[in-house]
Protein backbone atom coordinates (compact mmCIF):
# COMPACT_ATOMS: atom_id res chain seq x y z
CA UNK A 1 0.00 0.00 0.00
CA UNK A 2 1.29 3.45 -0.92
CA UNK A 3 1.81 5.92 1.95
CA UNK A 4 -1.09 7.98 0.56
CA UNK A 5 -3.32 4.83 0.35
CA UNK A 6 -3.65 5.38 -3.42
CA UNK A 7 -3.71 2.61 -6.00
CA UNK A 8 -0.54 2.28 -8.13
CA UNK A 9 -2.23 4.00 -11.11
CA UNK A 10 -4.07 6.61 -9.03
CA UNK A 11 -3.07 10.27 -9.13
CA UNK A 12 -3.39 12.80 -6.37
CA UNK A 13 -6.31 15.24 -6.53
CA UNK A 14 -5.51 17.82 -9.24
CA UNK A 15 -7.09 21.25 -9.61
CA UNK A 16 -6.55 24.43 -11.64
CA UNK A 17 -7.64 27.81 -10.31
CA UNK A 18 -7.43 30.42 -13.05
CA UNK A 19 -7.24 34.19 -12.86
CA UNK A 20 -5.54 34.31 -9.46
CA UNK A 21 -3.25 37.22 -10.39
CA UNK A 22 -4.78 40.64 -10.99
CA UNK A 23 -1.97 41.93 -13.18
CA UNK A 24 -0.71 38.94 -15.19
CA UNK A 25 -2.14 38.32 -18.66
CA UNK A 26 -2.57 34.67 -17.66
CA UNK A 27 -2.40 32.93 -14.28
CA UNK A 28 -3.18 29.61 -12.65
CA UNK A 29 -2.78 28.11 -9.19
CA UNK A 30 -2.25 24.41 -9.83
CA UNK A 31 -2.55 21.79 -7.09
CA UNK A 32 -1.24 18.23 -7.29
CA UNK A 33 -2.32 17.04 -3.83
CA UNK A 34 -0.25 19.04 -1.35
CA UNK A 35 2.04 20.45 -4.05
CA UNK A 36 0.80 23.95 -4.94
CA UNK A 37 2.42 26.07 -7.67
CA UNK A 38 1.44 29.58 -8.74
CA UNK A 39 1.98 30.04 -12.48
CA UNK A 40 1.76 33.44 -14.17
CA UNK A 41 2.22 34.24 -17.86
CA UNK A 42 3.47 37.72 -18.73
CA UNK A 43 3.51 39.23 -22.21
CA UNK A 44 6.42 41.40 -23.34
CA UNK A 45 6.47 43.14 -26.70
CA UNK A 46 10.06 42.20 -27.35
CA UNK A 47 12.17 39.12 -27.95
CA UNK A 48 15.75 38.14 -27.03
CA UNK A 49 18.39 39.94 -29.09
CA UNK A 50 19.21 36.82 -31.08
CA UNK A 51 15.60 36.62 -32.31
CA UNK A 52 15.18 40.24 -33.41
CA UNK A 53 13.93 40.66 -36.97
CA UNK A 54 13.45 36.90 -37.27
CA UNK A 55 9.65 37.07 -37.26
CA UNK A 56 9.57 34.56 -34.41
CA UNK A 57 8.48 34.94 -30.81
CA UNK A 58 9.72 33.19 -27.67
CA UNK A 59 8.31 31.31 -24.68
CA UNK A 60 10.51 31.12 -21.61
CA UNK A 61 10.06 30.19 -17.98
CA UNK A 62 11.41 30.92 -14.52
CA UNK A 63 11.01 28.68 -11.46
CA UNK A 64 11.44 29.29 -7.78
CA UNK A 65 10.51 27.88 -4.40
CA UNK A 66 9.32 29.97 -1.46
CA UNK A 67 11.38 29.63 1.73
CA UNK A 68 8.72 27.65 3.60
CA UNK A 69 7.46 25.59 0.69
CA UNK A 70 9.15 22.64 2.42
CA UNK A 71 9.35 21.27 5.96
CA UNK A 72 12.28 23.49 6.87
CA UNK A 73 12.96 27.01 5.70
CA UNK A 74 15.32 27.26 2.75
CA UNK A 75 17.26 30.40 2.01
CA UNK A 76 16.06 32.49 -0.91
CA UNK A 77 18.35 32.03 -3.89
CA UNK A 78 18.35 35.79 -4.43
CA UNK A 79 20.05 36.12 -1.05
CA UNK A 80 22.94 33.93 -2.21
CA UNK A 81 23.26 35.86 -5.46
CA UNK A 82 22.76 32.93 -7.83
CA UNK A 83 20.29 30.24 -8.80
CA UNK A 84 21.00 26.62 -8.00
CA UNK A 85 21.66 24.08 -10.72
CA UNK A 86 18.34 22.40 -9.89
CA UNK A 87 16.42 25.64 -10.39
CA UNK A 88 18.09 26.34 -13.73
CA UNK A 89 17.44 22.79 -14.92
CA UNK A 90 13.75 22.91 -13.98
CA UNK A 91 13.01 26.29 -15.55
CA UNK A 92 14.71 25.23 -18.77
CA UNK A 93 12.57 22.08 -18.77
CA UNK A 94 9.39 24.13 -18.31
CA UNK A 95 10.36 26.47 -21.14
CA UNK A 96 11.19 23.61 -23.53
CA UNK A 97 7.93 21.86 -22.69
CA UNK A 98 5.77 24.90 -23.42
CA UNK A 99 7.65 25.82 -26.60
CA UNK A 100 6.98 22.31 -27.91
CA UNK A 101 3.31 23.15 -28.45
CA UNK A 102 3.65 26.75 -29.68
CA UNK A 103 4.16 27.96 -33.25
CA UNK A 104 6.71 30.68 -32.57
CA UNK A 105 6.32 32.19 -36.04
CA UNK A 106 2.55 32.54 -35.59
CA UNK A 107 3.22 34.20 -32.22
CA UNK A 108 5.23 36.94 -33.91
CA UNK A 109 8.03 38.92 -32.28
CA UNK A 110 6.61 38.77 -28.78
CA UNK A 111 7.84 37.01 -25.66
CA UNK A 112 5.78 35.27 -22.97
CA UNK A 113 7.48 34.50 -19.67
CA UNK A 114 5.85 31.87 -17.48
CA UNK A 115 6.84 32.23 -13.82
CA UNK A 116 6.33 29.16 -11.66
CA UNK A 117 6.54 29.80 -7.91
CA UNK A 118 6.21 26.82 -5.58
CA UNK A 119 4.05 27.80 -2.61
CA UNK A 120 4.03 24.34 -1.07
CA UNK A 121 6.05 21.29 -2.08
CA UNK A 122 5.19 17.62 -1.65
CA UNK A 123 6.89 16.09 -4.66
CA UNK A 124 6.36 16.69 -8.37
CA UNK A 125 6.87 20.45 -8.40
CA UNK A 126 8.33 20.46 -11.92
CA UNK A 127 5.49 18.39 -13.36
CA UNK A 128 2.92 20.61 -11.67
CA UNK A 129 4.73 23.70 -13.00
CA UNK A 130 4.58 22.43 -16.59
CA UNK A 131 0.94 21.37 -16.34
CA UNK A 132 -0.24 24.56 -14.63
CA UNK A 133 2.11 26.68 -16.73
CA UNK A 134 0.26 25.55 -19.83
CA UNK A 135 -3.06 26.81 -18.40
CA UNK A 136 -1.49 30.19 -17.57
CA UNK A 137 0.01 30.33 -21.07
CA UNK A 138 -3.37 29.51 -22.63
CA UNK A 139 -5.03 32.33 -20.73
CA UNK A 140 -2.30 34.75 -21.83
CA UNK A 141 -2.88 33.75 -25.45
CA UNK A 142 -6.63 34.18 -24.95
CA UNK A 143 -5.96 37.68 -23.60
CA UNK A 144 -3.95 38.42 -26.73
CA UNK A 145 -6.62 37.01 -29.03
CA UNK A 146 -9.27 39.20 -27.37
CA UNK A 147 -7.14 42.17 -28.42
CA UNK A 148 -6.71 40.83 -31.96
CA UNK A 149 -2.98 40.32 -31.48
CA UNK A 150 -3.00 36.61 -32.40
CA UNK A 151 -5.29 33.71 -33.22
CA UNK A 152 -4.96 30.95 -30.61
CA UNK A 153 -5.66 28.14 -33.06
CA UNK A 154 -2.69 29.23 -35.15
CA UNK A 155 -0.29 29.75 -32.24
CA UNK A 156 -1.17 26.79 -30.02
CA UNK A 157 -0.55 23.42 -31.67
CA UNK A 158 -1.52 21.11 -28.80
CA UNK A 159 -1.85 20.72 -25.06
CA UNK A 160 1.12 19.66 -22.93
CA UNK A 161 1.29 18.20 -19.42
CA UNK A 162 3.72 16.32 -17.22
CA UNK A 163 3.61 13.68 -14.51
CA UNK A 164 6.06 11.73 -12.37
CA UNK A 165 6.24 7.96 -12.09
CA UNK A 166 8.48 5.67 -10.09
CA UNK A 167 9.21 2.20 -8.81
CA UNK A 168 8.56 1.93 -5.09
CA UNK A 169 9.27 -1.38 -3.36
CA UNK A 170 9.27 -3.07 -6.76
CA UNK A 171 5.91 -1.64 -7.86
CA UNK A 172 5.53 0.95 -10.67
CA UNK A 173 3.40 3.84 -9.38
CA UNK A 174 1.99 7.09 -10.77
CA UNK A 175 2.38 10.66 -9.47
CA UNK A 176 4.87 10.37 -6.61
CA UNK A 177 4.48 12.50 -3.51
CA UNK A 178 7.51 13.38 -1.40
CA UNK A 179 7.34 10.25 0.79
CA UNK A 180 7.56 8.06 -2.31
CA UNK A 181 9.95 10.26 -4.28
CA UNK A 182 12.50 10.26 -1.48
CA UNK A 183 12.44 6.45 -1.19
CA UNK A 184 11.83 5.33 -4.79
CA UNK A 185 14.29 2.92 -6.39
CA UNK A 186 13.57 4.58 -9.74
CA UNK A 187 11.91 7.90 -10.45
CA UNK A 188 11.02 9.51 -13.76
CA UNK A 189 9.29 12.57 -15.15
CA UNK A 190 7.35 12.40 -18.41
CA UNK A 191 6.29 15.39 -20.53
CA UNK A 192 3.78 14.64 -23.31
CA UNK A 193 1.36 16.39 -25.60
CA UNK A 194 -2.37 15.86 -25.96
CA UNK A 195 -1.82 13.89 -29.17
CA UNK A 196 0.53 11.52 -27.33
CA UNK A 197 3.84 12.95 -28.52
CA UNK A 198 6.77 12.70 -26.14
CA UNK A 199 8.47 16.00 -25.34
CA UNK A 200 10.93 14.83 -22.69
CA UNK A 201 11.60 11.91 -20.37
CA UNK A 202 13.84 12.14 -17.31
CA UNK A 203 14.49 8.79 -15.63
CA UNK A 204 16.95 7.84 -12.92
CA UNK A 205 17.74 4.63 -11.06
CA UNK A 206 18.55 5.51 -7.47
CA UNK A 207 19.77 1.99 -6.70
CA UNK A 208 19.62 -1.01 -9.02
CA UNK A 209 19.14 -0.26 -12.73
CA UNK A 210 15.61 -0.60 -14.02
CA UNK A 211 14.66 -2.92 -16.87
CA UNK A 212 13.08 -2.13 -20.22
CA UNK A 213 9.92 -3.88 -19.01
CA UNK A 214 9.80 -1.62 -15.97
CA UNK A 215 10.34 1.42 -18.17
CA UNK A 216 7.42 0.37 -20.38
CA UNK A 217 5.25 0.02 -17.27
CA UNK A 218 6.21 3.56 -16.20
CA UNK A 219 5.49 4.88 -19.68
CA UNK A 220 2.03 3.27 -19.66
CA UNK A 221 1.27 4.86 -16.28
CA UNK A 222 2.50 8.23 -17.53
CA UNK A 223 0.29 8.07 -20.62
CA UNK A 224 -2.72 7.36 -18.43
CA UNK A 225 -1.89 10.18 -16.02
CA UNK A 226 -1.17 12.75 -18.72
CA UNK A 227 -4.38 11.88 -20.57
CA UNK A 228 -6.24 12.70 -17.36
CA UNK A 229 -4.30 15.92 -16.82
CA UNK A 230 -5.01 17.14 -20.34
CA UNK A 231 -8.68 16.31 -19.88
CA UNK A 232 -8.65 18.49 -16.75
CA UNK A 233 -6.79 21.27 -18.60
CA UNK A 234 -9.45 21.28 -21.30
CA UNK A 235 -12.21 21.44 -18.71
CA UNK A 236 -10.44 24.35 -17.03
CA UNK A 237 -9.92 26.52 -20.11
CA UNK A 238 -13.23 25.92 -21.89
From TrEMBL:
InterPro entries attached to this UniProt entry: ExoRNase_PH_dom1, ExoRNase_PH_dom2, ExoRNase_PH_dom2_sf, PNPase/RNase_PH_dom_sf, Ribosomal_Su5_D2-typ_SF, RNase_PH, RNase_PH_bac-type, RNase_PH_CS
Species annotation: Chelativorans petroleitrophicus
Family as reported in the entry's similarity comment: Belongs to the RNase PH family.
Domain of life: Bacteria
Keyword list, A-Z: Nucleotidyltransferase, RNA-binding, rRNA processing, Transferase, tRNA processing, tRNA-binding
Domain Exoribonuclease phosphorolytic, first and last residues per copy: 10-140, 160-225
Subunit composition and interactions: Homohexameric ring arranged as a trimer of dimers.
Residues noted as binding phosphate in the record, renumbered to the chain: 86, 124-126
SUPFAM superfamilies from the UniProt entry: Ribonuclease PH domain 2-like (SSF55666), Ribosomal protein S5 domain 2-like (SSF54211)
GO molecular function: 3'-5'-RNA exonuclease activity; tRNA binding; tRNA nucleotidyltransferase activity
Coiled coil: none
Protein purpose: Phosphorolytic 3'-5' exoribonuclease that plays an important role in tRNA 3'-end maturation. Removes nucleotide residues following the 3'-CCA terminus of tRNAs; can also add nucleotides to the ends of RNA molecules by using nucleoside diphosphates as substrates, but this may not be physiologically important. Probably plays a role in initiation of 16S rRNA degradation (leading to ribosome degradation) during starvation.
EC code(s) of this entry: 2.7.7.56
GO biological process, one term: rRNA 3'-end processing
Gene: rph
Protein name according to UniProt: Ribonuclease PH
Catalytic activity as recorded in UniProt: tRNA(n+1) + phosphate = tRNA(n) + a ribonucleoside 5'-diphosphate
Gene3D superfamilies in the record: GHMP Kinase, N-terminal domain (3.30.230.70)
